[in-house]
Amino acid sequence: MHIRVKGKQAPRIEAPILVIAPHSTFLDAAIVYVTGFPSIIVRRESGMNPWLGKLINFTQPVYVGREDPDSRQKTISDIIQRTRSKEDWPQVLIFPEGTCTNRSCLITFKPGAFYPGVPVQPVLIRYPNKLDTVTWTWDGPGALKLMWLTLTQAHSNCEIEFLPVYQPNDEEKRDPKLFAHNVRNLMAKSLGIPTSDYTYEDCRLVKKAKDLQLSQSSLLIKIQKLRSRLGITRRKLEDKWLEQNSTIFSNFDDLFLSRKEFSELLGIAESDHELLDLFQLFEVKVNETSSFNLKEYLLAVILTNQATKKDEMTTIAFDCFGGKLDLKWFQYVMMLVYFIPKEQAEHIFRTASTNNSDYITSGNYKNS
Fold first, then answer.
1. Quick one: DSSP state of residue 164?
2. Transmembrane region positions (predicted)?
3. Rounded Cα gap, residues 339 and 235, in angstroms
4. Angle at Cα 126 formed by Cα 185 and Cα 122, nearest 5°?
């Protein structure tokens, strides 16, 4: 592997953090060697590898648990502590995109590297090869195939470029997202590629939508996108609330909240425009007052979170209500899962129900 280095790496005293992009392949790990083995931000699972984990531990890494709602705050705290410390810690190396892309653009930078408000050195990675045998993304060849294809080449080229240290201004120090946004724009300009507001969470949503055979415009995916942007997914707020209110689906009645009550439930400012977007998806008029249908929202979240394939979603819905659904909730579930209009859903309901009952059971539905 031919590695060409452009520019000069700044010492820790000038730039405690190295920001690396674009991230597209496992071969990006070469930059750890080139930069003198700085501390890396890495998934906890990687450190458990019996061989690679030993090398990772050597760098004194900061481990991240993506599924742990408290891990994010601990990671940020560790980064701040290390980068502001007077002790001789190594530089911290971060891939702020948080996932691999195909290098056609820079996706949204996670703000973790920018919370300390200290100078960062942007570092670019390029692979100027005739054949691309390295890009490892969500859809595409797996790691073993890419390794084999790379090994069949006489050599592979990698170019690492150190840009000048970026000094944040006072506004950027106060706003990590602005700091991240401006550094990303600078790096994209140097690479000659556009930026995209795509995120790691969006990648997960695309995969989830594919598994559940849902379009990106479906209500279930819209809900998940807004939950992700509001940080609700990571904190698992609905799961915690449902644990405390386990009887919420014991009847077919609706449950309504005002916008203020909904805001307080999620711990998000009432003025947040994305919270308003989420509120409007389930907004109804109750006694001429704008209200949020909490029960419909929670059922939609449960169906998306718990199902691994489309047909499981109806089973989960029946289970939530103790094995049966009335006409209104059956119509709602059919609309969410199969996009079936109310009239058609009612026909299915009447056909499946026994003796014109007010509800149908899971068994009635499966046998219809």
1. P
2. none
3. 29
4. 40
What is the length of the chain?
368
Determine the Cα angle at 103 with ends 44 and 59, to 5°: 30
Per-residue pLDDT of the chain (368 residues; tens, 9 = 90+): 899 999 999 999 999 999 999 999 989 989 999 999 999 988 777 778 888 788 888 888 888 876 665 677 888 899 999 999 989 899 999 999 988 899 999 999 999 999 999 999 999 999 999 999 999 887 778 889 999 999 999 999 999 999 999 999 999 999 999 999 999 999 999 999 999 887 777 777 888 888 889 888 899 999 998 888 887 877 777 888 888 888 899 999 999 999 999 999 888 888 888 899 999 999 998 888 899 999 999 999 999 989 999 989 999 999 999 999 999 999 999 999 999 999 999 999 998 887 778 899 998 888 87
With b meaning 16 or more CB within 10 Å and e meaning fewer, what string describes 7-38? Answer: eebbebeebbbbbbbbbbbebbeebbeebeeb
The angle formed by the CA atoms of residues 133, 135 and 139, to the nearest 5 degrees, is 115
Three-class secondary structure of residue 229 per DSSP: helix
